[in-house]
Amino acid sequence: MIELDGVAHSYGGTELFSDVSLSMGQGSFHFLTGPSGAGKTTLLKLCYGELQPRSGDVRLFGESRRKMGRNDLARARQRIGVVHQDCQFLDHLPVRENVALPLIASQRPVPEGDLDDLLGWVGLSAQADALPPTLSGGERQRAALARAVMTSPEVLLADEPTGNLDWDMSVRLLSLLIELNRMGTAVLIATHDLNLIRTAKSQISARVLRIAGRRMQLAGADL
Ligand code: ADP
Ligand code: ADP
After folding, report:
1. d(C-alpha 120, C-alpha 141), whole Å
2. What is the CATH number of domain 1-79+153-223?
3. Atom 21 in ligand 1: which residue has the minimum CA distance?
Protein backbone atom coordinates (compact mmCIF):
# COMPACT_ATOMS: atom_id res chain seq x y z
CA MET A 1 0.00 0.00 0.00
CA ILE A 2 2.91 2.33 0.73
CA GLU A 3 6.15 1.69 -1.07
CA LEU A 4 9.45 3.53 -0.97
CA ASP A 5 11.95 2.56 -3.60
CA GLY A 6 15.53 3.80 -3.38
CA VAL A 7 14.47 7.01 -1.69
CA ALA A 8 16.92 9.71 -0.61
CA HIS A 9 16.24 12.89 1.30
CA SER A 10 18.26 15.93 2.24
CA TYR A 11 17.57 19.26 3.90
CA GLY A 12 19.68 22.03 2.47
CA GLY A 13 22.83 20.30 1.32
CA THR A 14 22.88 17.72 4.08
CA GLU A 15 21.84 14.26 3.07
CA LEU A 16 19.78 12.57 5.76
CA PHE A 17 19.54 9.16 4.15
CA SER A 18 19.69 7.52 0.77
CA ASP A 19 18.63 4.30 -0.88
CA VAL A 20 15.77 3.66 1.53
CA SER A 21 13.26 1.05 0.44
CA LEU A 22 10.18 -0.06 2.28
CA SER A 23 7.04 -1.91 1.39
CA MET A 24 4.04 -1.75 3.67
CA GLY A 25 1.60 -4.42 2.62
CA GLN A 26 -1.93 -4.97 3.81
CA GLY A 27 -2.01 -5.84 7.49
CA SER A 28 1.75 -5.48 7.93
CA PHE A 29 3.43 -4.23 11.11
CA HIS A 30 6.64 -2.21 10.96
CA PHE A 31 8.77 -0.42 13.49
CA LEU A 32 11.11 2.32 12.41
CA THR A 33 13.88 3.01 14.85
CA GLY A 34 17.16 4.90 15.03
CA PRO A 35 18.68 7.72 17.04
CA SER A 36 17.07 11.12 17.37
CA GLY A 37 17.78 13.14 14.25
CA ALA A 38 18.29 10.06 12.05
CA GLY A 39 15.28 10.98 9.93
CA LYS A 40 12.35 8.94 11.26
CA THR A 41 9.86 11.81 11.10
CA THR A 42 11.11 12.72 7.64
CA LEU A 43 10.60 9.15 6.50
CA LEU A 44 7.02 9.20 7.82
CA LYS A 45 6.39 12.43 5.91
CA LEU A 46 7.56 10.66 2.76
CA CYS A 47 5.22 7.76 3.56
CA TYR A 48 2.15 9.98 3.69
CA GLY A 49 3.16 12.12 0.77
CA GLU A 50 3.85 15.30 2.76
CA LEU A 51 7.34 15.40 1.27
CA GLN A 52 8.44 14.57 -2.25
CA PRO A 53 11.49 12.30 -2.41
CA ARG A 54 14.63 13.99 -3.76
CA SER A 55 15.41 10.79 -5.62
CA GLY A 56 13.82 7.38 -5.86
CA ASP A 57 10.12 6.75 -5.92
CA VAL A 58 7.29 6.74 -3.38
CA ARG A 59 4.08 4.95 -4.31
CA LEU A 60 0.88 5.38 -2.37
CA PHE A 61 -1.66 2.66 -3.15
CA GLY A 62 0.14 1.92 -6.40
CA GLU A 63 0.37 5.49 -7.61
CA SER A 64 3.66 7.33 -7.87
CA ARG A 65 3.79 10.39 -5.61
CA ARG A 66 5.45 12.39 -8.39
CA LYS A 67 2.47 11.92 -10.65
CA MET A 68 -0.12 12.74 -8.03
CA GLY A 69 -1.92 16.05 -8.09
CA ARG A 70 -3.52 17.69 -5.09
CA ASN A 71 -6.76 15.75 -5.40
CA ASP A 72 -4.96 12.42 -5.85
CA LEU A 73 -2.91 13.12 -2.76
CA ALA A 74 -5.96 14.15 -0.73
CA ARG A 75 -7.70 10.92 -1.74
CA ALA A 76 -4.68 8.81 -0.76
CA ARG A 77 -4.34 10.70 2.53
CA GLN A 78 -7.89 9.72 3.47
CA ARG A 79 -6.67 6.12 3.50
CA ILE A 80 -3.74 6.89 5.83
CA GLY A 81 -4.10 7.78 9.51
CA VAL A 82 -1.27 9.71 11.13
CA VAL A 83 -0.52 10.17 14.83
CA HIS A 84 1.85 13.13 14.92
CA GLN A 85 4.49 13.51 17.60
CA ASP A 86 2.87 16.66 19.03
CA CYS A 87 -0.80 15.73 18.98
CA GLN A 88 -1.97 19.19 17.82
CA PHE A 89 -5.54 19.52 19.06
CA LEU A 90 -7.87 22.46 18.74
CA ASP A 91 -7.80 23.44 22.41
CA HIS A 92 -11.17 25.20 22.43
CA LEU A 93 -13.02 22.10 21.15
CA PRO A 94 -13.88 19.12 23.35
CA VAL A 95 -12.12 15.79 22.83
CA ARG A 96 -15.16 14.42 21.06
CA GLU A 97 -15.06 17.08 18.35
CA ASN A 98 -11.30 16.88 18.03
CA VAL A 99 -11.57 13.14 17.39
CA ALA A 100 -14.31 13.71 14.80
CA LEU A 101 -12.35 16.51 13.11
CA PRO A 102 -11.12 14.49 10.11
CA LEU A 103 -14.76 13.90 9.17
CA ILE A 104 -15.94 17.42 10.02
CA ALA A 105 -13.08 18.95 8.03
CA SER A 106 -13.95 16.94 4.92
CA GLN A 107 -17.66 17.68 5.42
CA ARG A 108 -18.60 14.08 5.97
CA PRO A 109 -21.30 13.08 8.44
CA VAL A 110 -20.14 12.05 11.90
CA PRO A 111 -21.63 8.69 12.91
CA GLU A 112 -22.17 9.46 16.60
CA GLY A 113 -22.45 5.78 17.56
CA ASP A 114 -19.11 4.97 15.95
CA LEU A 115 -17.56 7.97 17.65
CA ASP A 116 -18.81 6.73 21.03
CA ASP A 117 -17.44 3.25 20.30
CA LEU A 118 -14.10 4.71 19.30
CA LEU A 119 -13.86 6.84 22.45
CA GLY A 120 -14.73 3.76 24.48
CA TRP A 121 -12.08 1.72 22.70
CA VAL A 122 -9.32 4.16 23.63
CA GLY A 123 -10.75 4.51 27.15
CA LEU A 124 -11.79 8.15 26.87
CA SER A 125 -15.57 7.94 27.24
CA ALA A 126 -15.39 9.93 30.47
CA GLN A 127 -13.21 12.61 28.84
CA ALA A 128 -15.37 13.06 25.73
CA ASP A 129 -16.46 16.56 26.75
CA ALA A 130 -13.15 17.64 28.27
CA LEU A 131 -10.95 20.22 26.60
CA PRO A 132 -7.55 18.97 25.36
CA PRO A 133 -5.44 21.13 27.73
CA THR A 134 -6.95 19.23 30.69
CA LEU A 135 -5.83 15.80 29.42
CA SER A 136 -2.85 13.83 30.70
CA GLY A 137 -0.09 12.77 28.30
CA GLY A 138 -1.54 9.28 27.93
CA GLU A 139 -5.02 10.63 27.33
CA ARG A 140 -3.71 12.99 24.65
CA GLN A 141 -1.97 10.16 22.83
CA ARG A 142 -5.09 8.01 22.96
CA ALA A 143 -7.21 10.88 21.68
CA ALA A 144 -4.73 11.40 18.86
CA LEU A 145 -4.96 7.71 18.02
CA ALA A 146 -8.75 7.85 18.01
CA ARG A 147 -8.67 10.86 15.69
CA ALA A 148 -6.24 9.08 13.36
CA VAL A 149 -8.48 6.01 13.03
CA MET A 150 -11.80 7.90 12.89
CA THR A 151 -11.86 7.53 9.10
CA SER A 152 -11.01 3.78 9.25
CA PRO A 153 -7.70 4.18 7.43
CA GLU A 154 -6.02 1.18 5.81
CA VAL A 155 -2.63 2.35 7.06
CA LEU A 156 -1.71 3.94 10.39
CA LEU A 157 1.55 5.83 10.87
CA ALA A 158 2.51 6.81 14.42
CA ASP A 159 5.45 9.07 15.27
CA GLU A 160 6.85 8.32 18.74
CA PRO A 161 3.36 7.60 20.08
CA THR A 162 4.75 6.64 23.49
CA GLY A 163 7.36 9.41 23.61
CA ASN A 164 6.27 11.02 26.86
CA LEU A 165 4.40 8.13 28.46
CA ASP A 166 5.32 5.95 31.40
CA TRP A 167 5.80 2.27 30.77
CA ASP A 168 2.29 1.09 31.71
CA MET A 169 0.66 3.66 29.46
CA SER A 170 3.12 2.84 26.64
CA VAL A 171 2.08 -0.79 26.83
CA ARG A 172 -1.58 0.18 26.84
CA LEU A 173 -1.13 2.29 23.72
CA LEU A 174 0.86 -0.49 22.07
CA SER A 175 -1.99 -2.92 22.79
CA LEU A 176 -4.39 -0.64 20.93
CA LEU A 177 -2.05 -0.47 17.95
CA ILE A 178 -1.65 -4.26 17.92
CA GLU A 179 -5.42 -4.69 18.13
CA LEU A 180 -5.87 -2.34 15.21
CA ASN A 181 -3.34 -4.35 13.22
CA ARG A 182 -5.11 -7.60 14.04
CA MET A 183 -8.27 -6.08 12.59
CA GLY A 184 -6.39 -5.56 9.33
CA THR A 185 -4.78 -2.11 9.47
CA ALA A 186 -1.17 -1.84 8.36
CA VAL A 187 0.80 -0.13 11.13
CA LEU A 188 4.14 1.66 11.17
CA ILE A 189 5.48 3.01 14.46
CA ALA A 190 8.51 5.27 14.62
CA THR A 191 10.09 4.90 18.04
CA HIS A 192 13.46 4.93 19.72
CA ASP A 193 12.06 2.75 22.53
CA LEU A 194 13.62 -0.68 22.02
CA ASN A 195 11.74 -2.08 25.02
CA LEU A 196 8.50 -1.24 23.28
CA ILE A 197 9.66 -3.04 20.13
CA ARG A 198 10.72 -6.10 22.12
CA THR A 199 7.38 -6.19 23.89
CA ALA A 200 5.53 -5.93 20.58
CA LYS A 201 7.61 -8.67 18.99
CA SER A 202 6.66 -11.03 21.77
CA GLN A 203 3.04 -10.63 20.66
CA ILE A 204 3.08 -10.14 16.91
CA SER A 205 5.44 -10.55 14.02
CA ALA A 206 6.77 -7.13 13.15
CA ARG A 207 9.54 -6.00 10.85
CA VAL A 208 12.03 -3.66 12.49
CA LEU A 209 13.81 -1.13 10.31
CA ARG A 210 16.62 0.96 11.65
CA ILE A 211 17.97 4.18 10.19
CA ALA A 212 21.61 4.58 11.05
CA GLY A 213 24.59 5.98 9.19
CA ARG A 214 22.25 7.39 6.55
CA ARG A 215 21.03 3.98 5.52
CA MET A 216 18.08 1.90 6.53
CA GLN A 217 18.60 -1.69 7.53
CA LEU A 218 16.44 -4.51 8.68
CA ALA A 219 17.27 -5.05 12.33
CA GLY A 220 18.02 -8.61 13.36
CA ALA A 221 17.10 -10.43 16.55
CA ASP A 222 19.83 -8.49 18.39
CA LEU A 223 17.64 -5.52 19.28
P1 ADP B 1 14.02 11.93 13.81
O2 ADP B 1 12.54 11.84 13.68
O3 ADP B 1 14.70 10.62 13.59
O4 ADP B 1 14.45 12.58 15.08
P5 ADP B 1 13.81 14.01 11.80
O6 ADP B 1 13.34 13.45 10.51
O7 ADP B 1 12.85 14.74 12.62
O8 ADP B 1 14.55 12.85 12.62
O9 ADP B 1 15.01 15.01 11.52
C10 ADP B 1 16.21 14.58 10.92
C11 ADP B 1 17.16 15.76 10.78
O12 ADP B 1 16.67 16.66 9.81
C13 ADP B 1 17.34 16.55 12.04
O14 ADP B 1 18.69 16.94 12.13
C15 ADP B 1 16.45 17.75 11.83
O16 ADP B 1 16.95 18.85 12.53
C17 ADP B 1 16.52 17.96 10.35
N18 ADP B 1 15.27 18.53 9.81
C19 ADP B 1 14.03 18.07 10.00
N20 ADP B 1 13.13 18.81 9.35
C21 ADP B 1 13.82 19.79 8.74
C22 ADP B 1 13.47 20.90 7.91
N23 ADP B 1 12.20 21.14 7.56
N24 ADP B 1 14.45 21.70 7.46
C25 ADP B 1 15.73 21.46 7.77
N26 ADP B 1 16.14 20.45 8.55
C27 ADP B 1 15.22 19.62 9.03
P1 ADP C 1 15.56 3.14 32.89
O2 ADP C 1 14.66 2.53 33.90
O3 ADP C 1 16.87 3.61 33.45
O4 ADP C 1 14.89 4.15 32.01
P5 ADP C 1 15.46 0.51 31.68
O6 ADP C 1 16.25 -0.09 30.55
O7 ADP C 1 15.42 -0.16 32.99
O8 ADP C 1 16.02 2.01 31.86
O9 ADP C 1 13.97 0.72 31.19
C10 ADP C 1 13.68 1.41 30.04
C11 ADP C 1 12.20 1.70 30.05
O12 ADP C 1 11.45 0.48 30.06
C13 ADP C 1 11.81 2.43 31.29
O14 ADP C 1 10.86 3.41 30.93
C15 ADP C 1 11.22 1.35 32.13
O16 ADP C 1 10.26 1.93 33.00
C17 ADP C 1 10.54 0.49 31.11
N18 ADP C 1 10.18 -0.87 31.62
C19 ADP C 1 9.64 -1.12 32.83
N20 ADP C 1 9.34 -2.38 32.98
C21 ADP C 1 9.72 -3.01 31.84
C22 ADP C 1 9.65 -4.34 31.40
N23 ADP C 1 9.15 -5.34 32.14
N24 ADP C 1 10.12 -4.64 30.19
C25 ADP C 1 10.63 -3.68 29.42
N26 ADP C 1 10.70 -2.38 29.80
C27 ADP C 1 10.25 -2.04 30.99
Report:
1. 14
2. 3.40.50.300
3. 11
